[in-house]
């Protein structure tokens, strides 16, 4: 391909990516650039029909909050084939913004892995499942495969990343839960909403892992597919055998104090513990319905039941890889600052070589 044509193609795609990440329409971007650029001109830039001059290029970068060299960085990641978990009211323009932000984050992630030689292989076994019961069995198989035993998982994101899954957190509207898929057709990817409380992030990450690991026949209804992945996440976080050992095989009443103790130990919400107790016959449907009714009727009880009590967790792997590459002199301080989206001064203060 002609070098100028290749540069034009990269620019047109990067401009559209930056616009979508910013959540701008063509009209909004045209109004945000100083000096003004017409909507029609921006549309032509994005279609590769013409290139801006240096003055316009600087103006576009300023309006979109990116560096000029961003527009000419080759694409290395495709995330077109991912599945969103979102509310119906989450608009497509916001889904497009999420997709492009994920692409950007994953490109940086893979670049740093390559720089420091820290790539990890994904080898968790896939399985065909049709039922929630089969999903629960596979959850225990995966726990055993990872050597987790029956203990609580201290950091779900770290466990996934250490085993080849790329996990990205983005702060997004509450109508977005997460997404998963295979970037470039082979790189396992999970995205979770960083705005959620710890218990929900952990559950969502494992729900999405279920989507990555399961081959579910097409005739299984979509609602049951989601239930299958919920059961997988619940069993992974808190095996039913462990839950029953703590509360008993059957209970008429159960105290919130018991549930919150389990919540702290296993990093799973009270709501999800109650759902597991109901699904596995420890409490009756009437008792479970009574719990939901009490929450709806008593705001103070609802607040207590839904309170997050798990220790906040996030992955430090990306930052560790950046600082490793910096310590090995594989990258400069300015490159590290770009990767970490911070200042050079902050990077220098955190490096602290020993």
Describe the structure concisely for a colleague.
This protein is of the alpha/beta class and 354 residues long.
SSE order and pairing:
Layout: H1 3-22, H2 26-32, H3 39-46, H4 54-64, E1 82-86, H5 92-116, E2 127-128, H6 132-145, H7 156-162, E3 166-170, E4 176-183, E5 187-193, H8 198-213, E6 214-215, H9 222-237, H10 240-247, H11 256-266, H12 270-279, H13 285-297, H14 299-306, H15 317-327, H16 333-340, H17 344-351
Parallel strand pairs: 2-6, 3-5
Antiparallel strand pairs: 1-4, 4-5
Helix pairs in contact: 1-5, 2-3, 5-15, 6-9, 8-9, 12-13, 13-14, 15-16, 16-17
Report on the architecture of this protein.
It contains 17 helices and 6 strands. It has 354 residues and is an alpha/beta fold. The protein has 3 domains: 3-72, lambda repressor-like DNA-binding domains (434 Repressor (Amino-terminal Domain), Orthogonal Bundle); 82-237, Arc Repressor Mutant, subunit A; 317-351, no CATH class. The strands form 2 sheets. A 4-stranded mixed β-sheet has the order 1-4-5-3, with helices on both faces. It has a two-stranded parallel ribbon with strand order 2-6. A hairpin with a 3-residue loop joins strand 4 (176-183) and strand 5.
């Amino acid at each position: 391909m002609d070098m100028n044509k290749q540069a034009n193609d990269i620019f047109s795609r990067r401009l559209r990516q930056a616009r979508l990440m910013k959540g701008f329409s063509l009209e909004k971007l045209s109004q945000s650039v100083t000096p003004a650029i017409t909507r029609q001109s921006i549309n032509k830039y994005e279609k590769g029909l013409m290139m801006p001059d240096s003055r316009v290029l600087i103006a576009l970068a300023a309006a979109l909050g990116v560096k000029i060299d961003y527009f000419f960085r080759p694409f290395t990641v495709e995330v077109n084939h991912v599945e969103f978990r979102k509310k119906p009211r989450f608009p497509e323009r916001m889904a497009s913004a999420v997709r492009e932000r994920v692409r950007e984050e994953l490109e940086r992630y893979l670049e740093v892995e390559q720089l420091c030689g820290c790539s990890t292989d994904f080898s968790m076994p896939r399985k065909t499942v049709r039922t929630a019961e089969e999903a629960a069995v596979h959850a225990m198989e995966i726990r055993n495969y990872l050597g987790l035993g029956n203990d609580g998982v201290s950091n779900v994101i770290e466990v996934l990343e250490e085993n080849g899954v790329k996990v990205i957190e983005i702060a997004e509207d509450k109508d977005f839960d997460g997404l998963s898929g295979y970037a470039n057709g082979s790189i396992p990817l999970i995205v979770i909403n960083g705005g959620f409380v710890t218990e929900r992030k952990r559950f969502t990450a494992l729900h999405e892992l279920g989507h990555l690991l399961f081959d579910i026949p097409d005739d299984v209804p979509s609602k049951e597919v989601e239930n299958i992945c919920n059961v997988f996440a619940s069993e992974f976080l808190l095996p039913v055998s462990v839950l029953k050992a703590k509360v008993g095989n059957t209970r008429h009443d159960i105290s919130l104090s018991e549930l919150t103790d389990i919540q702290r130990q296993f990093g799973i919400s009270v709501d999800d513990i109650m759902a597991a107790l109901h699904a596995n016959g420890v409490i009756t449907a009437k008792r479970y319905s009574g719990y939901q009714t009490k929450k709806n009727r008593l705001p103070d009880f609802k607040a207590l039941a839904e309170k997050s009590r798990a220790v906040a967790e996030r992955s430090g792997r990306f930052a560790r890889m950046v600082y490793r590459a910096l310590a090995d002199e594989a990258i400069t301080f300015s490159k590290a600052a770009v990767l970490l989206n911070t200042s050079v001064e902050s990077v220098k203060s955190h490096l602290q070589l020993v």
